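Lab notebook: predicted structure, single chain.

Context: the supervisor wants predicted structures on file for every construct in the current expression panel, including those that have not yet been purified. This is the next one on the list. No modifications to the sequence; it matches the entry in the shared construct table.
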Amino acid sequence: MSPHTASNPPDEGLAIGFQPSDPVADTGRLHQLHRSLRRDERQFLSFPDHLDEVMRELAPLLGLFVDHRLDACARNPFDTGIQEYEEAVLEYFAALAGASPDDVHGYVAASPQEALLHGLAMARRGLPEPSVYVSEQASCSVTRACRLLGLNRVPVQSLPDGTMDPEDLRLQTRMRRGAGAVVVATCGTPLRGAIDNVAELRDAAATSGPVHVHVDATAGGLAAAHSDQVPPWSLAHGAHSITLSGHGLLGLPVPAGISLMRREQIPATASGITVPDRTVVGARGGLPALLLWTRLRSLGRAGVAAMVSRCQDVAAYAVDRFECAGARPERFPGSLTVTFQRPPAWVVDKWRLTHAGDLAQIVTTGPVTYTAVNELAIELSAAGWEAVA
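Prediction complete. Output recorded below exactly as produced.
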């Protein structure tokens, strides 16, 4: 039977058939999925899960289609009106990262991974044959970006607190002297929430020749910017470029990434004229910029600072409670991440805990209240640290 004349099978499930499906039935399926997810009573402490409180203000934006074709600094007659909103968001994040808006260039990306890819692509342009030096505690997104860009990734050992070891970085760069180095520092490592010292890492890599320090602050930038307990981590401390994000802590319904780079790091054209950087993907959606702007405006800088402070207080409280439960918790100063001994499988499953090896974690955003911490601590204590399955 020709595929052009074949009818849909009687029970096609979720398959996309040749003929249009029944829209009423499909809508019913989606509503059923929504209800089942809302009925799931398991806690979810490893990732943000607090969209209800922000969806009312953001919902109108989900009805827009915005094909944003412009570089954030470009001007042309096809501007859809999104550009001014994006510039306001970039100014906000530039200030958080310790730079003047006039000193940096960047754009709002569809995801932190895209922003990271953009940052590394730009970083390598000004160096002869750079290797990328990455902590063993860094996000796997860095490894993926290096593979996509064809960059030589050099793993660097980490210290017990989860930060990159400056002495091992010094050794690794000395072995590749003269080729230049792209050092990826992390502000908020995936497992421990550790924050690398940008100033130390830049000095340690100096023997390689020209150095470009890129900071992956996707997970920890917002918290670090509102804390005086963290090591030097930003553009203000010697970084050349930075990747930031805010969708997790702010509770956006879609990912959003920020890519910022010092203007002097933007390569010149063949004629010697420095031009604004272009985005990785060309045409892009304007929704992430609008969502970030709306949420940040509704909170204000004071509201964001208060939110971060509350989350840090809950993290500190969790350390105390988990210590009493015998879970041996750890927390990097200023971080929203609390790691602890991995509990039995039934606790991991009930609370949807992220885990790696013998460690589990919570990130104190969204639903992680004092009450939730108390309830988890009770079960950690009751588990008696049975053998991990």
